[in-house]
Amino acid sequence: MYFSTRVKNEAARVMKEKWCCQRAELLGLLSVNTAGEHGSPGLFFTTENAAAARKVFSLFKKGSPLKPEVKVKKGSRFRRANTYLVRLSPQPGLDGFLRELGLGEGSLPLSQIIAQGCCRRAYLRGAFLAGGSISNPARGYHLEIVAPNRETAADLVAVMAHYDLRAKVIERKGKLVVYLKEAEQIVGFLNVIGAHRALLKLENIRVYKDVRNNINRLVNCETANLDKTVEASLRQVKKIRYLQDTLGLSALPVGLREVARARLQHPHMSLRELGQQLTPKLGKSGVNHRLRRLEVLADGLRDENGE
Ligand SMILES: [Zn+2]
Fold first, then answer.
1. Residue list, CB under 5 A from ion ligand 1
2. Do 91 and 143 sit in the same domain of this protein?
3. What is this structure's pTM?
4. What tens digit of pLDDT does each residue of 218-253 get?
5. What is the distance in A from the centroid of ligand 1 to the CA of 17?
6. How far does the centroid of ligand 1 lie from the alpha carbon of residue 121, in Å?
7. Among 53, 68, 132, 159, which one is most buried in terms of CB atoms within 10 A?
8. pLDDT tens by residue, 99-119
9. Among 14, 1, 28, 29, which residue's Cα sits nearest to residue 195?
10. How many Å lie between the centroid of ligand 1 and the Cα of residue 119?
């Protein structure tokens, strides 16, 4: 199952007791539902998520004595998912219900409908259920809600800001997409809408990914260290060759001469390995010390020769 579907199914199961929250959630659901033509001939909600359709149906029933209808359009061979249509056909009491939801003429403004925290959360939950999606956190972090117009997009951004969620908006195919990109922010959003199991799932994946990233970082560091060793060896070989060409290695004190020869023969060896080649064997710091002396000697000679 897609992670998105998982989150929606969980969010759809959250059912608040108070009508204030139910109304706010219904407003969220209907505000972003792009097929919702509010007003005549009735009120529509369409979705491919069965749980979301069920929720709208039961919220219609809880909030009004009106009779909602549900239609299912079977998915085609090309488009597998079913489409669910929940509709309130024109009937006495519909206009009053729309006004109560904040959708009709002369209805309450959004700010009043979601004045309380419980209702703000419900509004966001509804909006996500109707127009939201979230990518599989194993692949990347992206959560979005597609809004039908600029006003709704701005409302969503403002409501999210209550929870320090810094949503951004882009335009895509004439619609406005409100989105969050950071894992931290997405976790925050799932918390707000009450999708706690999805939140834990995401956190688990995130921890796993972080461990993997740390391992990658470690490997990168080791590669970088290795590069440094190779670089140092190349520099040493160059300077020893210079000594060989100018002084001749036989002119060097025996300790230095041995290390110089070993380095020329084994340019890829680490200092420790190089020490093992000598008789008597020499530790890493001893080898390092002699190689430094060789380098200093070469630098000094190059200076004297004015090169
Ligand atoms: Zn409430």
1. 20-21, 116, 118-119
2. yes
3. 0.69
4. 777 777 777 777 888 889 999 999 999 988 998 888
5. 9
6. 8
7. 132
8. 889 887 788 889 999 999 999
9. 14
10. 4
